[in-house]
Design brief:
Radius of gyration of chain A: 27 Å
Number of helices of chain B: 1
Number of strands of chain B: 0
Number of helices of chain A: 7
Order of helices and strands of chain B: H
Shape of chain B: rod-shaped
Strand content of chain A: under 5%
Helix content of chain A: over 70%
Largest interface: A-B, 42 and 28 residues
Structural class of chain B: mainly alpha
Oligomer: heterodimer
Shape of chain A: elongated
Helix content of chain B: over 70%
Largest sheet of chain B: none
Chain lengths: 258, 29
Amino acid sequence: MPVFHTKTIESILEPVAQQVSRLVILHEEAEDGNAMPDLEKPVLAVSRAVVNLVKVGRSTIESSEDSLLKQDMPAALLRVEAAARLLEEASSMLKVDPYSQPARKKLIEGARGILQGTSSLLLCFDESEVRKIIRECKTVLDYLAVAEVIETMEDLIQFVKDLSPCLTKVSREVDHRSQELTHQVHRETLTRCLDSVKTLSPILICSMKIFIQILRQHCRESDEAAENRNYLAGRMSDELHEIIRVLQLTTYDEDEWD
Amino acid sequence: EIILEACKSIAAATGALVKAAGTAQRELV
C-alpha cells in the first residue's frame, strides 16, 4: 500500500523517509552510540534549502488566488523552519558533546519535522493543483446544464465551440492526474470515467442535433429526443461528479471501496 | 514548478544529513 498518493510526492519524500526511519532504528538499537560526526556542513545545507523553500513558498502564497492554499501553506512553512532550527541546535550541541543524547533526539525530531513539514507543504500545493482541475470539470458541468435549452443549430454550433476546448483540457488534465496517482483503484476509476465522458460527448451532440431537427419539423417525437439528450447529459454529469470525487481522495481507506 | 524543486533540495539535503548521522551509529550496530 503506497504511503504517498502521488508519484511526484513519493519520489521526493520516500528516499528521505526511509533514511529517517533507518536513523531512528539505529538510534534505538545503539542507544549509547558512537561519537556523532561533525554535522555542521550537512545541517547548513538543510538550512539553506529551507531558506530557499520559505522564499519560494511565500512567493507562491502571494501570487496564488487559491484562498485555501493561502490559509494552509504558511503553517507548513513554519513547521519546516522550526524543524531546521532543531537541526541547528542539535549540531551545536553535538559539537560540544558528540555523545549527547538530547542532541541525537533533537536531530531525529528535526529530521522528522522536515519530512512532515515538507510533506504538508507538498500536500497543500497538490490539493491546490487538484482544485484547478476540479474548476475545469465544473466548467464542463455548467455547459452540460445548458444542453437542454439549446433549440437552434446556431446555438448548438456555439455550444460545441464552447464545450470542446474545456472538454479537451479536462481530458488532458485528468489523464495526466490519473498517471500521477499511486493508488491503482483511484487511477482506474479516473480512467474509466474519463473514457465514458469522451465516448458520451459526441453521442450527446448527436442527440442534441436530432432534437433540433425534430423540433424544426414540429414532430411529437421531440419529447422523446429531449429525454434522450437529457439522459446523455446526465450520464456525462454523473461521470464528471465521480471524477471530482476521486480527484479529492488522498486516503487509502479500503473499506470505502468494499 | 519551482516549489517542487525547492522541496527536492530539502529532501536531498536532509537525506544526506541523516545518512551522515546514521553512518557512525551503523558501525556500532
